[in-house]
Prior knowledge:
13-stranded mixed beta sheet; 26% strand
Amino acid sequence: MSGLEALILKPQEAGAMAPAWQALAERAVAPNPFFAPSFLLPYLAHLDRRPAVLVAVREKGADALLAAAPFQHRRPGLLIGAATAAAGDYGPLGTPLLAPGALAGAPADALAGALALLVEAAAGHFRKKIVVFPYLRTDDAVAASLSEAAGARGWHLAFDDPQVRAGHAAGEAGRAQFESVAKGRLKELGRQFRRLSDLAETRFAGTSDPAELPQAFERFLHLEAKGWKGGRGSALSSSAQTAAFARAFVAAAAARGALRIDELIHAGQPVAMLVSIRDGARLFAWKTAYDEAFARFSPGAQLAREAMRLTLAEEPATEDGRDGDSLAIPGHPMISPLWRGAVPYATAIVATSKAGAARLAADMAARRRLKQAAKAVVKRVRG
């Protein structure tokens, strides 16, 4: 669109624009805390050392940003490289940040225009004919705008490997989902909670107080390290780099009032904890851990249900309230039976040709097959 310009910013340059960047993140039409500076800057500094840039769009000469997303050169499959939005395991959401309306008084296609320039700038910077958005949520305004932009520019857009993970709706729909959990499951959770309470005082607790959150997060790190993630070296505190990233992100999110940590306390100690990120009208269940010595009481499931209840009871972020995204793998055995909503997502491939998109999709499918075969081998070895 005329009147717009794209900026290509290295992390240190993007850090200097953090106020405008954060302001965009807080008003984005589809929330994504993992593309905000509070998450992305510590993530790139401590964990992901691949060269990355923030691609941002604004009106020429203006300070406010209209669209932004971080990009890297990656191979989403085995062989083919692409300009790829920097979404991954620690932040599995690739939806770019897009300002409402994108331009004051602009026509209805303003969102698509700003998004189109974002895509073109990313492709141009990395000299690629393919731009990829992993974990792109497919049911919101950004996905619709991406389709509109692709049609207007003559690109080919494919939503590859569509998946659905657990979530919950806001307002009345969310409360209906809360009540729709199988009666047998609820009866068993109630029985387990009573049995746990018979052993010692058991209660739920939680905090959003910035003064309390750092200490609560240290309890979470300790609890997570005690479990299987600690044993396999994938807990946040398993390396100095992941611990530094996590503490920096949590401190920044807590200072903005964007963090909530819930706990199931038994005999004065946490036996399950959940770290959640609030972003506008959505809550993201970022990290969870439980004490495996109490597994027979389903502490993680107990806390997941309580967290949903609290989210639905919170002062509404919008007229409809706040919905939830579990960020969990599809079909997660603990949370999927409890959070009955659906969060659809896919890998969005934007290519200059249908053949280019098809080749990348085939390359990505080959990588998935190889990964599944490797997992099967590991499973057999571990028995």
